[in-house]
Request: fold
Amino acid sequence: MTAVRRPYVTLSCAMSLDGCLDSTAPHRMAMSNAEDFDRVDQLRADHDAILVGASTVRRDNPRLLVRSAERRAARVASGRPSSPAKVTVTATGDLSPEAAFFTAGDGDKFVYCPRGAADALTRAVGDRATVVALGDAVVAMGDALADLARRGIARLMVEGGGRIHTQFLAQRLADELQLVIAPFFVGEVGAPRFVHPARFPWDEAHRARLLDTRRIGDVVLLRYAMSTRALAEADVGG
Ligand SMILES: NC(=O)c1ccc[n+]([C@@H]2O[C@H](COP(=O)([O-])OP(=O)(O)OC[C@H]3O[C@@H](n4cnc5c(N)ncnc54)[C@H](OP(=O)(O)O)[C@@H]3O)[C@@H](O)[C@H]2O)c1
Reply:
């Protein structure tokens, strides 16, 4: 049997000048601006699935749908669902079936969790999502990617939060990083960070390849290739 290639993985994130994804306040902090939100909407439309961590589902309650009617129509016209499939990962299984992740949109939804959490989670979410049991204490992201590939997901967009980004980067599972820098500081102890301490493959001696920079109103987009596959897609060589 030939192995299915893991999905092409795009990490997408907006952070403050001090590397935070959000503040500690109850409402979600808007890091970006309307023009950049529209760019992210196009990025969503260009992928087969969107993954966020369970903490982001609990805290932000995101719908994770393509907002533009034109983009949804274009996806449908090309034989795809109007929005990408949704994916989340949890170790505790602490997810409300009333979260917009489960209730918004009629596309596929997948929840990856360790084997011990799967039964209770399946009972909780019913037919609103497919619960996939992988691993004992935590889910290995590489295993989740392999499972998504077998389900036909060729391009995965990862929208955070920081604990998720850290694993994809440290485990060399990301192809591309699209990082937006907002022009302000959060400055709070305990604010969620873009990444947590880890051993990353990129350091002083192994630098990521900057593909592009773009000014979008008052924010800046940095695009990095994190794999040779991304370099090949961008056609810039190794
Ligand atoms: N600015 C942006 O672009 C952006 C984007 C997304 C999110 N955010 C912000 O980021 C914050 C959340 O980030 P975060 O780092 O705290 O959390 P996160 O990365 O969204 O989610 C972490 C949670 O995911 C689950 N998880 C992660 N790795 C796992 C693994 N290997 N196996 C099983 N489960 C795993 C665990 O869920 P359980 O606890 O259920 O076990 C863990 O607590 C929020 O404030 C949100 O607003 C900002």
